[in-house]
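User: Working on a comparison across species. This one is Pyridoxal phosphate-dependent aminotransferase from Hymenobacter fodinae. Can you predict its structure so I can line it up against the others?
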Amino acid sequence: MYLCLAKYMGWGRAFALAHRARICTPQPSGPTLHPLISAQLIPSAMRDKISLASGYGNFAVPAVAAEAAIRSISSGTLPVSDAAGLPALREALAQGYQRPITATQVVVTPGAKSALFALFKTLLRPQEEVLLPTPNWFGFGELITRAGGRVCPLPLSSESNYALTPAQLEAALTPQTRILLLSNPNNPTGRVYTRQEMQALLDVTRRFPELYVVSDEIYHLITFGAEPVPSLLDFEDPHERHVVVNGYSKSLALIGWGVGYLVAPAAVAAACAAWQFATSVAVPAPNQLAALAATQAASAIAAELLAQLQPTRARMLAELAALPHVPHGQPEGTYYAFPDFRAYLTPHLPAAAAAAELVASFQEAGVQVVDGSSCGPPGFVRLSYAVPEETLREAMHRIALVLQARQLASDLGC
Ligand SMILES: Cc1ncc(COP(=O)(O)O)c(C=O)c1O
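Assistant: Here's the predicted structure for Pyridoxal phosphate-dependent aminotransferase from Hymenobacter fodinae:
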């Protein structure tokens, strides 16, 4: 331990710290030496803020999309979009799926969040249940409850790489379950559900003809596996109950442009479009034309994002591997890692409080992360590697120091 500390702070300070630590008074609430140690370990120069918490990457706007938007703005009169979106964009999106989809099934929305909310408002009757395998994106819960539904978490285990077996799914479905909600690739774990896994789950859901299956595929092109991420729309939909939500702010780098969409059976799509007409606005035409250009150039844009992410992904995985007692798996998709820091939680605190305290100690060292409790499991943390490599290196260095400080405090019983 002192060897590690000495590496960062020198032997003299490490021994002085150890000596000071030894004379501290043990506190019933846990290792309250942490602030003292972290104050010693983390120089004030390191306290400027770095965020690995953002859900949005550091990607440049694709030139083809920017040019399309500029052209439309410069052309004088903007086209007035239908509430459900410009026909050309709806058509292009429909054409992008393997199975036959028509433009009437596509609704363009102000971001994926709006697509989800329109969908939940349309499908959920009061207090109906949405089965949500967890960990999952923290935004789903609020969207569901604000739409009048209830979230039923289905906890999955990191030990099995978040596998969702048909038996687990079947046991969790009840007559009150209206929607099964998946995200693939999963935010925050980066887990990609394969074609075989999806098929096995859909073999279960087909036995529940009233159940809707909703797949949020907003990270679908950000995958480092050998196979493309399967879309729910690649599979047979025996009861017309499959819905996909997607958007442009992740895989296609249109961050802040507010373009998302849903693809649903025609009647559901029409009801969602009616909701949007009544409560919101069509996405502005320049943004839709930018999205159309991005759709047409999707493979090239995604290839560029993946090339940009490769080095930071490799660095993130290497840095995590160097942290003792932090299992982290190999996330295949998204630009997140979801490591397990449970070994560093303060004992005797309730799990959520201990997780919040850990996250606060990272924050104190100037690193913002997402507390895994917001996605399901306390003690895990979501870290984005869609940041410059130097920023990531510095953030992981600080995290390592905080863990060393916590380990030292724990070893010393303070
Ligand atoms: C899984 C998932 N769905 C939807 C959204 C919202 O996307 P948008 O920015 O298009 O509203 C996010 C944003 O973080 C997300 O992670």
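For your comparison, note: Residues 1-34 have pLDDT under 50 and may be disordered.

User: Helpful, thanks.
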